[in-house]
Amino acid sequence: MGMKGKTLNDIRRQIDIIDKRIIELLNKRMEMVLKTRTYKEHILDLEREQEVLENVRRLSHHLIRPDFSERLYRLILKESRSLQKKAFNFEGNIELQIEVKK
């Protein structure tokens, strides 16, 4: 393998490290999302979602286009709602099980 191959592999290793960090941060974000559920009356909060989307559009510069960031975050927000809904259903089932045992 020539020098070019070594450089390509080095760059790919760096990309792999960055991907790992992105996934770790997404997992951390989802943990925080679950924590917010206890403070919210409803899962859907359009005002907050709009705020998040505006923030990521504003933070998108250099190589990242605002429309790309918004599409990405719409998926993240959709997954966040889904996770909260599953957690809510799970908590609801636990409460039902506790009531039945009484």
Spatial separation of the terminal alpha carbons: 70 Å
Series of H and E elements: HHH
Number of domains: 1
Unreliable stretches: 93-102
Give the biggest beta sheet. none
Description:
This protein has helices at 3-37, 46-59, 66-101. Residues 93-102 have low confidence and may be disordered. The radius of gyration is 20 Å and the shape is elongated. The protein has one domain (3-101): Up-down Bundle (Chorismate Mutase Domain, subunit A), CATH 1.20.59.10. Helix 2 runs antiparallel to helix 3 (66-101). It starts with a helix and ends with a helix. The longest helix is centred in the last third of the chain and has 36 residues, at 66-101. The chain has 102 residues and is mostly helical.
Question: What does the secondary structure layout of this molecule look like, with pairings?
Answer:
Blueprint: H1 3-37, H2 46-59, H3 66-101
Helix pairs in contact: 1-3, 2-3
Summed up:
With 102 residues, this protein is mostly helical. It has three helices and no strands.
Key features of this structure:
83% helix; elongated; single chain; mainly alpha; Chorismate Mutase Domain, subunit A; 102 residues
